[in-house]
Each structure stands twice: as C-alpha cells, then as structure tokens.
Amino acid sequence: MCISCCSNWQKICDICINSKQKRMVSVKTLGQFIIEKQADFPFSKGELSRLLRDIGIASKIVNREVNKAGIADILGGAGEINIQGENVQKLDVFANEQFIAALSAGGECCAIASEENEDIIHIKNEMSRNARYVVAIDPLDGSSNIDVNVSIGTIFSIYRRKSQNGPGTNEDFYQRGTEQVAAGYVIYGSSCMLVYTTGKGVNGFTLDPSIGEFCLSHPNLQTPKMAKTYSINEGNYMRFPDGVKKYIKYCQEEDSSTDRPYSSRYIGSGVADIHRNLITGGIYMYPTTSKSPKGKLRLLYEANPLAFIIEQAGGKATDGFNRIMELDMKELHQRTPLFIGSADMVDMAGEYMKKHSAVEKIAKA
Ligand code: AHG
Ligand code: MN
Ligand code: MN
Hints:
Blueprint: H1 14-26, H2 30-38, H3 47-67, E1 77-81, E2 87-89, H4 90-106, E3 109-114, E4 121-122, H5 126-129, E5 133-141, E6 152-160, E7 182-188, E8 192-197, E9 202-208, E10 213-218, E11 229-231, H6 242-252, E12 263-264, H7 270-280, E13 283-286, E14 297-298, H8 299-312, E15 316-318, E16 335-336, E17 338-341, H9 343-364
Parallel strand pairs: 3-5, 11-12, 11-13
Antiparallel strand pairs: 1-2, 3-4, 5-6, 6-7, 7-8, 8-9, 9-10, 13-17, 14-16, 15-17
This protein binds 2,5-anhydro-1,6-di-O-phosphono-D-glucitol and manganese (II) ion (MN) (2 copies).
C-alpha cells in the first residue's frame, strides 16, 4: 500500500513521487528569495538581507509561543503599563525580547525603536555599533486579542541610519516614511505569514510548519483599487470627526449602482484587519477621536510600515488629508490618524474629510 496516498499497492506510488517532486521544485523559501533579490543589487553587502532573515527567525520563535499560548503560562498581563499607558501582556514582553535579541545578535542594526520601550535601544556590541541600519518595531500588534485566540501580528520598519557611526541616535528614526528601505509585518493567524517590501512590490510568505520555513505563497501582492469592506471601531462613532461619521454613513447607504452597503469587518488587530483588506480590498480607518485627538496608532512602527506595504501593493495611506509617508517624524512614539487600503476608498474618505472636517482640523491646530 502506498504510504502517501493509500490508493496504490506500492511503497510510494508514481503519482505521489511525481507530485512530491513537483511540490519540492515549486517551493521557494524566504531565505532563497532574499538571496535572489540581493543579486539585483550587485553592490549591496547583504546587510539588509541578513536583517530580514533575523526578523524571520525571531518571528518563528514568537509564532511557536503564540501557538502554545493556551497551554503554556504565556497568556495574560505582565503587570506593567507601557509608555503608551497600555497594559503590557506577557506575549508583548516575550516578542519584544525575541526581536531585540535577534536584531542585536545579527550585527546589522545599531539601534532599535520599539513600542514597548520609551527610548531607543542602542545595540552595544562592536559589530552593531557601526551598522548601517536602524529598525523600528511593534513586536506584538493587537495585544487585546492575545488571550482570545484571534490573530495578532508584528510590524517592522527599516531605515538607513542618518548618523555617521557609533551608537544610533533618535535622529536616525526621525525620518519620513518615504525613507524606509524595507518594511513588513508578520501575522500569527490561522497560518503564520510574513509580508514585506523593499520598495519593489510586496511579497508574502507562509510558514510551512512541517519544514519550519517561510515559503513564497503570495508573490507580487496587489490590492484591489476598490472594494466593499470598511474597518473601523464603530464604538467610537460619537467621538469621530464629522468627515468620518459621514463617510461611514455613505458606506452604509443602500445604492445598487455602487454596490452599497459595504460590509463592516473589524478585528481590532491592525495587522489582521489590514492584511485581510490587502488581500480582498477595503479601507481600514483609525481616525482622531475626541478622546485621542492625535489618533491612536504610532507613525514610526505602525502607520509608516503599513503605508509602505499598502502603497507598494497599489493602495493608499493618509491621515485623512496628507500622505502618511510624507508626514514629519518629531517624536519616537508620535501618533497619527490612519486611513489605509484600496486607493479609491481612501480617496473617497479623504474627500469626506476635506469637505466636513477640514475646519475642525484647523480649529484644533
Ligand atoms: P497594539 O496592540 O500594538 O497596541 O496595537 C493595537 C492597535 C491596532 O492593532 C488595532 O487596530 C487598534 O489598536 C485597536 O484599537 P481599538 O481597540 O481602540 O479599536
Ligand atoms: Mn500595534
Ligand atoms: Mn504592540
């Protein structure tokens, strides 16, 4: 009996051998892909490739921990409040430590800015001090979903340092999103995926747990220009600017010519919501609210990397008025409103903001 398909009386039948060989030929791991892409830049020294590889390794370790979250003592709060005033979860701490350890050991980045650390982390070993890159990271995005088996993520953004050498400085991070050399996210979902861009399109890799490798599963991702999904925490409705309120009503109106009403989908994990919208199209909004007048999401390690990915996939990202990647970075943990996703939907939301909220915005400035 064939040990693979059970339908033929051979140890491994010809059909299974053939399909196994076909499968083996078509798999491209993240490591292979990175090396191939590096060949496009003959003068590169491979540092960026190694950084991406280090991030891939750390995310596999985090994924392993996320997978056993229910059975290991890794759920729940760590008993601390972070710089953002939010409850820190044990997995936030674990993920932060893993990414810092991987990036420190790799020797390719001289400083890290993390959501979980008030100040930048200088990597002190000799190898890293003079490294050319800095990395900004949200080690665990969607913390509120950790304990309930819902997708969470990691977001990262890589810049070339501004300072010449020695330990990295805050100024190395005070760059516009347009200066990012790479950005990506990992989604710990029904499967674990790593999606990244270096400014030449977006590629997605799915972790094959049987071989422990991220394999290219979504080459050259493009997001639909127009779609039927809007994602926003509508519990905050009364606190939204008028432009957002009116745009939500537009999404909910009945109109067969534009195929409305749209569907509302909101997980509360930015990575998961934006990943879904990247694949199927849609708009994700986290606008200002009367409670958070600057917005909630952070420019450096949430909005900018996600904007880079979405733009590379043909979508758009704004703060309601301006392109996210052109906003000035003035503080490490600076917040921003975010409207991101299918280009036509982001444009339409922007029109509502201009029409109904421009005056509010000027009044607050
Ligand atoms: P984090 O867990 O890193 O603090 O980020 C959570 C973010 C984002 O992922 C999500 O879309 C949003 O906050 C959810 O906020 P609300 O609970 O206010 O909707
Ligand atoms: Mn986050
Ligand atoms: Mn986080």
